[in-house]
Amino acid sequence: MAELRVCALYPELMNIYADRGNLLMLERRCGWRRIGFTLTAAGLGEAIDPDAHDLFYLGGGQDRDQRLCALDLVETKRDALHAAADRGALVLGVCGGYQLLGHRYALGDEEIPGIGLVDLETVRSDGPRLIGNVAIEVALDGDERRVLAGFENHAGRTHLGAGETPLGRVLRGHGNTGSSGVEGVRRDGVVGTYLHGPLLPKNAWFADWLIRRATGVDELEPLDDRLEDAAHAEARRAAGA
Q1: HEC states along the chain?
Q2: Interatomic CA distance for residues 165 and 105, integer angstroms
Q3: CA 227 to chain centre
Q4: Among 30, 69, 95, 103, which one carries the catalytic annotation?
Q5: pLDDT tens-digit profile of 66-89?
Q6: What is the pLDDT along the chain (241 residues), one digit of tens a residue?
Q7: 53, 103, 154, 196: which one is catalytic?
Q8: Per-residue b or e along 73-91, where b marks 16 or more CB atoms closer than 10 Å to that residue's CB
Q9: What residues pair up with 58 in beta bridges, in sequence order?
Q10: Residue 196 and residue 235: Cα distance in Å, rounded?
Q11: Whether the predicted model's global pTM rises above the 0.85 cut
Q12: Which residue, 134, 118, 141, is CA-closest to 187?
């Protein structure tokens, strides 16, 4: 039987905007299809096994909590996450978790270190926070284009390195910087995004993409997604997409 093994990084500290709902969404959609699901939490000071999990999840947090987790990531988990990504495991970072996937988050004279899984840096701006409903167009498999819808709220502006690929093109909302026209990042199985909402309950198709990619199951059993589709449609309407 197929199984999805998820490692939630700092679930008690990095969990704003109901991002724990992303983990619940994965669990439920696996359970409905009789796909095994295991969830392991890794907190401050706890090492992780890069081979023991198929998907590593890092949500968003308040600035104080993000600082604590950033230092711990670098000291106890960075090498393991690099090893996991190198072997093809998925790493999903949302908002603050997305920022920590890069090299650094600069807040004036202070700098929060990242783990360097992708080439990006985030800079705190003196301008207004980038807040509101957002919709982006993504192409994850070949040329098929889909829409991810959610909510963003961030003061940081995230700048991608020249060789990095954004997760999607902004249809409505602000995205990485408010002016770049792109949102998030994707390097193979490493995905970062500012989309809360939470992300996966509003985008069931994306949850299924993660499950397929992480488990290697080519075709997932169809589900009755009327409620999920309605949530997705409402999120797109709210974003004006």
Answers
A1: CCEEEEEEECCCCCCCCCCHHHHHHHHHHHHHCCCEEEEEEECCCCCCCCCCCCEEEECCCCHHHHHHHHHHHHHHHHHHHHHHHHCCCEEEEECHHHHHCCCEEEECCEEEECCCCCCEEEEECCCCCEEEEEEEEECCCCCCCEEEEEEEEECEEEEECCCCECCEEEEECCCCCCCCCEECEEECCEEEECCECCHHHHCHHHHHHHHHHHHCCCCCCCCCCHHHHHHHHHHHHHHCC
A2: 19
A3: 22
A4: 95
A5: 889 999 999 999 999 999 999 999
A6: 799 999 999 999 988 777 789 999 999 999 999 999 999 999 999 999 999 999 999 998 887 888 899 999 999 999 999 999 999 999 999 999 999 999 999 988 899 999 999 999 999 988 899 999 999 999 988 768 999 999 999 999 999 999 999 999 999 999 999 999 999 999 999 999 999 988 999 999 999 999 999 999 999 999 999 988 998 999 899 999 8
A7: 196
A8: bbeebbebbbebbeeebbb
A9: 9, 93
A10: 11
A11: yes
A12: 118
> Residue 210 in contact with residue 92, Cβ under 8 Å?
yes
Residues with Cβ within 8 Å of 233's Cβ and at least 6 positions away in sequence, in order, are none
Could you tell me the two tokens for 80? 């393991």
- What the block records as the tokens of 11 is 């679930």
Active site residue 95: yes
Both tokens of 231, joined, read 């949530």
What letter represents residue 214's amino acid?
A: A
Instruction: State CA 62 to chain mean position distance.
Output: 16
Strand partners, 159: 121
CA atoms of 140 and 188, how far apart (whole Å)? 10
Burial of 137 (0-12, 13-18, 19+ CB in 10 A): middle
